[in-house]
Predict the structure.
Amino acid sequence: MNDETRQHDQPIQSEKNEVSTLALHDEAMHETAEPFEDTIKGPTWFYIFVVLALVVGAFYLGRHMGRLDNAAHIGFLHDGGSKDQAQENTQASTVSGASVFGSRCASCHQANGQGVPGAFPPLAGAEYVLGDPEVLVRIVLHGLQGEIKVAGQTYNGIMPPWESQLGDEEIAAVINHIRTELGENQADKIDAALVKKIREQTKDRQTPWTASELEALGT
């Protein structure tokens, strides 16, 4: 066999050897199986302890944890007081009678309380404003209708009730503004307790007051 023949046969033999080598290692080249993982359970007493700790901790926090309201920022309540009372006192101190008057009353009675002649009676110097405050409280709560004489002039119209739209503090504030700030009015102030009392006494009333009804009440 000449040299040329040997060179020609050598690559063929090399390819046979390569194929044979791959075949020998075929089993070693296959993909291995995924490893198997299993959970290891802890002792039963450990889980019982965790549950008891959570229960005891929740009970302790429920009994001893402070309130999550704004009491820490506005001061502690006095002994025997309540949260509702504190809120009521705060609201009463912040209600502006002038603001309530400007938004509810000034459109008819005017900002200076002089009213509109022939249409809306004046509040400055009016007898029913400066007299018994219960009269004004009743009128603001339930309104007024029919004829009424103010400063020598007769008016006949309807004033709407504000019972459902204004709270006790707001009504007290606007009445105090009317009795002390309009014109030369210098009557005594009232508090929300008076409004609350009259509101309770007249809670069943469904119609506005009339001048004759107010006079019949002795007010």
Q: What stands out?
A: The CA atoms of residues 41 and 121 lie 87 Å apart. The mean pLDDT is 78. Residues 95-216 form a domain with the Cytochrome Bc1 Complex; Chain D, domain 2 fold (CATH 1.10.760.10). The chain is about 55% helix and 5% strand.
